[in-house]
């Protein structure tokens, strides 16, 4: 689904849209919101990930280079969502295989040699809720480089999401989704 964004809405919000290859996003009120898309991982990268994760099971299709980035430009605070980090969470969670009631009935009717025994959570359920870092821009020999340092420190707060603001009918200024157009 492609969403048409009104140029007047962008200007009124003080937003700037950008697109460059597999990167697209928006700069607005000191924030960079960016999505990066690429093709499905090739077999050698899948094997590399399996080795790093110490598993022989990954989802059938992994868009490993796809990411969503939310970055506060002045502070360099960055929250991003990456497939590998999510799979690390899945691996650490080590949930038992999911067994639905229909599967139990099927298992009862099948012969023991026909049973497929899964030793992993094939739903790839993960507690992953994003990765965070501080990104510092430096200049080295006239070249601008970015360097990530440490993890963010999260604290509980009393503030809540403003549901009235969330429900407002303001125009959507940036939209992206992973769809079949990224299958290469």
Automatic annotation (TrEMBL):
* InterPro entries reported in the protein's UniProt record: Phosphatase_reg/MetRdx, TIP41-like
From which domain of life does this come? Eukaryota
Q: Report the sequence similarity comment from the record.
A: Belongs to the TIP41 family.
What name does UniProt use for this protein?
Putative TIP41-like protein
To which species is this protein native? Medicago truncatula
Upper lineage is: Eukaryota, Viridiplantae, Streptophyta, Embryophyta, Tracheophyta
């Amino acid at each position: 689904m492609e969403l048409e964004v009104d140029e007047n809405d962008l200007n009124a919000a003080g937003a700037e849209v950008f697109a460059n290859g597999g990167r697209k996003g928006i700069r607005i009120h000191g924030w960079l919101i960016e999505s990066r898309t690429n093709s499905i991982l090739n077999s050698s990268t899948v094997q590399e990930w399996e080795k790093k994760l110490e598993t022989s099971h990954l989802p059938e299709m992994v868009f490993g280079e796809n990411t969503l980035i939310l970055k506060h430009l002045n502070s360099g605070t960055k929250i991003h969502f990456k497939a590998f980090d999510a799979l690390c969470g899945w691996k650490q969670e080590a949930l038992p295989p999911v067994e639905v009631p229909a599967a139990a009935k099927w298992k009862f009717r099948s012969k023991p040699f026909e049973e497929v025994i899964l030793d992993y959570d094939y739903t790839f359920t993960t507690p992953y809720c994003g990765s965070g870092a501080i990104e510092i821009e430096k200049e080295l020999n006239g070249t601008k480089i970015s360097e990530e340092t440490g993890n963010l420190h999260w604290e509980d707060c009393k503030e809540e999401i403003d549901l009235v603001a969330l429900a407002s009918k303001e125009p959507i200024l940036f939209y992206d989704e992973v769809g079949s157009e990224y299958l290469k």
